[in-house]
């Protein structure tokens, strides 16, 4: 039983690490905010469906993805106002 838990933990960390890397990719976020947001949501739901994260963690990831989209939209509006 310990081996199963140990084997699952790195997989969860790898997937969460990938999601966090996607979230931190500011260049892609600003270049394609909608597509990037959709990719973050899709990955978060996949983590939940595969039972790698619980519902509370899913909610956290969705909020972070929404925050990233809001940041991108506000950044785009700031750029438009500066021109």
Structure explained in plain terms:
By secondary structure, the chain is mainly alpha-helical. The protein has a domain at 32-83. The protein has helices at 2-24, 26-31, 33-49, 55-82. Helix 1 packs antiparallel against helix 3 (33-49) and helix 3 packs antiparallel against helix 4. The radius of gyration is 15 Å and the shape is elongated. The chain starts with a helix and ends with a helix. Mean pLDDT is 85; it is low at 1-9.
Tag the structure with descriptive keywords.
single chain, 83 residues, mainly alpha, disordered N terminus
Short description:
This protein has 83 residues and is mainly alpha-helical. The chain has helices at residues 2-24, 26-31, 33-49, 55-82. The chain has a domain at 32-83.
The parts where pLDDT drops under 50 for at least 5 residues are: 1-9
- Give the overall form: elongated
Q: Considering DSSP H and I runs of 4 or more, what fraction of the residues is helical?
A: over 70%
The biggest beta sheet, please?
none
In total, the number of strands is 0
> Which structural class fits the helix and strand makeup?
mainly alpha
> Mean of residue pLDDT?
85
Rg result: 15 Å
User: Assembly state here?
Assistant: single chain
Number of distinct helices: 4
